[in-house]
Amino acid sequence: MIHNRNGFDYLVAQIKKAEEEFNMKTGIFMESTGVYHLTLFHFLKDKFETFIFNPLITNSNKNSGIRKVKNDKTDAISIAKIGKFQNVKCSCAFDVEIYTLKSLCRDYYKLTDTKSTYKKKLSTDLRVIFPGYSSAFSKITGKTSLAILKKYNNPQSIIDADKNALIELISTTSRKGLGYSEKLYQKLIEISNEAIYMGIHSPGLYVKITNTITLIETLEIQLNILLKEIHSHIKSGKLPEVFIKNIELICSIPGIGELTAITIMSEIGNIKGFLKPKHLVAFFGLDPSVNQSGKFNSNQNTMSKRGTKIGRRALYAVALASIRSTRNGKPINEILLKYYKENLKGKKNKVALVAIMSKLTRYIFSILKNQKPYEIRDPRIHEKMYLQNHSKSVA
Hints:
Elements: H1 5-22, E1 27-31, H2 38-44, E2 49-53, H3 55-61, H4 72-85, H5 96-129, H6 143-151, H7 155-160, H8 163-174, H9 177-198, H10 203-234, H11 241-251, H12 258-268, H13 277-283, E3 292-293, E4 296-297, H14 309-322, H15 334-342, H16 349-370, H17 379-394
Helix pairs in contact: 5-10, 5-12, 6-8, 8-9, 11-12, 12-14, 13-16, 14-16
């Protein structure tokens, strides 16, 4: 089939012809293949019962025979057999607006990673060209630092610069007054004199500094555009009301900001697709892998990492925030901080953070299923409430 309008119409005609000839109802199953299946799925879902399989399911069912065969025909037959004969989970939900939001969020994180790469590149180049420059600033990619490097991209240019012009540039961008600007100027002159003695002098390398700064600023502009579009999409009224409410519910968990809540909810989509908390934990790839054989049981199992990478990244940021305190010493999430210090004491840092991420996932499942905001509740009280409710249900 040709992947165009004529090909799509031909496919529908052939399916309907087969339905009439064999007097049957059609069920269409396809494998999730990044973005390549989306247009066809979107086209067919309103015409036939159409379902999507996770590729992990289809891959585990391929090549069950002895011969190694890989072509479109065998793949299609394998997917059809799974759909007809096996009781496996599949999806038939696709909301264009939620997909749009998810794509915007994923692009935002990808551009953030790219920006971080260029920040590291700038730091690396400065170590070679301008040793000691980073000691003058708490953040070399700050507004003042970038403004100076854009105009004076090497030590000699700072030494040769007009003193008043450079001080004015520092004062304008930092907004910290003349005293601060003069002190920073003197420090830059000292650093520049040392850098001329220690650093590598090459006009070609100086150009790299300017180019990298231009790329960082361009990426910052694009990130702001994406962020504005994400918030605009949330307020557009196109998304389901329950979806917007779920974002607000996730925001009720301490340590989760609006963008993080939007990202997590856009990855989850519809919480009704998850029957138990462990299903959502597995969706984020936080479930432990299993390695057992006979009496052997490995104690070095890692998390599966088979779920949404972006969602897992967002949860990681929340987990880090949840075990911190504010400047006043107040815990961001008192219960999780206590759990981290007492229950996870002695655990490796990464293992402990995964445990916090798993807890957060269960919190998210609970508030979305119950449609109630998060409440900070001591685990002992929670256990008592659970036992009371359980005893009532049994009675």
